User: Fold these one by one.
Assistant:
Number 1:
Amino acid sequence: MRATRRAFMMGGAALALAGCVAGGGGGGTTGGAVVVMRPVPNPGYDQWVAAFRQRAGARGISQSTLNEAFRGAGYLPGVVERDRNQTEVQRSLEDYLAITSNPTKVRDGRAALSRHRALLSEVEGRYGVPAEVVAAIWGMESNYGTRRGDIPVISATSTLAYDGRRGDFFEKQLMAALKVLQRGDVSADRMTGSWAGAMGHTQFIPTTFDAYAVDFRGDGRRDIWGDDPTDGLASAAAYLSRSGWRRGEPWGHEVRLPAGGAAVGATRSLSDWGAAGVQRTDGGRLAGGAQARLIQPAGAAGPAFLILPNFRVFLRYNNAEKYAIAAGHLSDRIGGGPELSTNFPPDQYGLTIDERRQLQAGLTAAGYDTGTPDGVLGKKTEAAIAAYERANGMPVTGQPSRGLLARLR
Ligand SMILES: [Ca+2]
């Protein structure tokens, strides 16, 4: 997907990390820019750390923990840069789904489910969260463990705590990270994550880890960082369970509305919705007293969903409706379910996602690379359109259009 792998330089070793995975599909906004992540000397930071160590000591963090934690730590200007440049693109739900539950994500999720079936069944038995839901969260957060983050958490959180834009928040994260080190879950050199301190398979920030992570096999360590995803998957399920996941209930359903429309935004029992003519697109029945809200996030021409209480549990992981729909839909797909049955309306340029994919493929075939033709038009496609227009003596707009698509066909 567009989560461009950004190169990070750390102690001479080139590492790679997908930015902001926890934001959900949130990569690509800096168009492959390389951010240097090497600690640099900073006397102000050093003074801040000295004062912080006093505060941490007063909170019960030992000198030896502090020594180990700060031995290799330092000020990371790249982290501050990332924090200042969070011009996160507001993606449409359609684009968001194209990024987070595209065919590759679904295929990888099904493979992950089958590879870890025994573990996920055991986790499901203990926490009541279905295997495909845990697998979907894994996919949303770290691309099934392939993007766990390489930035040292102590350096990242102390840099952002010192920087001060969200100083209180990151000082809390730093303090929680030290508690985790002191408890012995992980060593300081293995405690890595995203630039904002989201760690491991589950992309838990330190306070979430401290409160919810579990040691599934009881070996004494809660390890969400290593290649073995056991504790990570169990911790994701434990977090969902403690956030109120209702055993045996789905997150929601895609539905078709009756010809006369339905009360979008209202909450009623599933059986009442069924009686009002709303139908599940997968053919299942709407029955029972569970309360469901009808939403139509892309407007009257887009797909509609009945969302159940477990939808709100996804929001605890990431408080964005798009994230919750994507996590739910990806879990359905991983579990063998179909694609959404309702198409999204054309975008502001009058193009459907299939047409946007054709446009990208046409540009690439003409020698103007757009990357994977996923229908999500980002900076790369914009640049390709502009280059094509320039080379063909057209006004340079960088914008897609039906005329351009016709030319490229
Ligand atoms: Ca363990």
Note: The pocket of calcium ion is lined by residues 215, 217, 219, 221-223, 231 (CB under 6 Å).
Number 2:
Amino acid sequence: MAIVLTQDEPELLAGQDSSSRGSPNLRQFIRLLDDAGLLVRVPEPVHWKFEIGRRTRETRKPLLFENIIGYPGQRVFTNGLCNTACVAIALGIDRDDSRPAILREARRRLESPFSPRLAEASALCGNLTKADHPDLTRLPIPHWSELDAARYLGTWHINVSKDPETGERNIGVYRMQLLDRHHATVSAFPGSHLAMHVRKAERLNRLLPLAVAIGVPEAVMTAAAAGCPPGKDEFELAAALLQRPLDLTRCPGVALEVPVESEIVAEGFIQPGVRVQDGPFLDYRGVQNTNSEAFLFEATQLWIRDMPIFRGASVGTPGGEDHQLFSLLAELGLLDFHGSRLRHGVQNALLRRGLFGIFQRVSKAGAMLGPLARIKASPSP
Ligand SMILES: Cc1cc2nc3c(=O)[nH]c(=O)nc-3n(C[C@H](O)[C@H](O)[C@H](O)COP(=O)(O)O)c2cc1C
């Protein structure tokens, strides 16, 4: 059964239509988790370096860090999709529904499309404040684990780009390591649509515009992580999962659209012909992964909502929220690791059964075998 959102908290819903139905945006989601007694607020000071990541891995409950040392007024939210009840709430479905009922509702939505729609050009600027300089270190970006090389800007976010030849849009989730104030890596699998866009931009010797939106509705994140054939707009998939129109707005500086319901938007470019090292990073298999062929993102503008909520994830723990999301996508037939058919079939079967420990071990073994040994020099989710 779908939940109808009625009691909207003004502070939490700045910029939202109070009659919105369907899946919640991030602030509504956090509010619903709180109402259901599932949210753990962390009011005491925490450090972005290791502490947020460690507590995220240890607690296994949705966590809202409200007091980040050096970042007054900013919050970090993690573990949002840590179990089936939370997945249901994120999609605006009754959390007491059984897992099969939740999946039935999600499948029904995929067959009941809604459209993304373009909001006024000012929608983004009206809700978000432009930072004076595109200084990414203004954000409370966690250094999630001692096994990671650095802080990771992108662990639970969306990357928006367009095919430089056809103009077709892609949204995906590709991890991003903070390099300095204005730069981050983008670690995309060579078979991903973003990598395809980069290769085309490089043939044309052009910068590839990229927008990074953090703190989007979980349904939008889910659609970004889904395997979608080129030409199929993942924002349409997101709107179907939301079961309400998805308002998009044009980025002020680049010809890309992002959800109005974003907490943070960094826009900029991927530099053609440049590759940088990403990682090591503790990945979904629980192993340190390095990608020496990552793309280089240069931020040119940064937009931040008032009292922003930075959304991120500490991946690599069996059954963590990344695995929960993969499991949901596997059940919906939307998971795509861009690997061999055999690998795909085995991973899907394990994820559908919730066998996360075995899924990790098989994924790790698969990466070390045969042609997939390349994975060491390639990114992985
Ligand atoms: C939490 C999370 C992190 C991910 N990280 C990466 C990543 O770093 N690189 C990558 O290529 N795919 C990553 N993925 C998987 C892609 O988002 C997924 O394959 C998606 O379908 C890619 O979109 P595309 O097929 O349009 O390229 C991640 C998925 C999730 C849920």
Note: The mean pLDDT is 89.
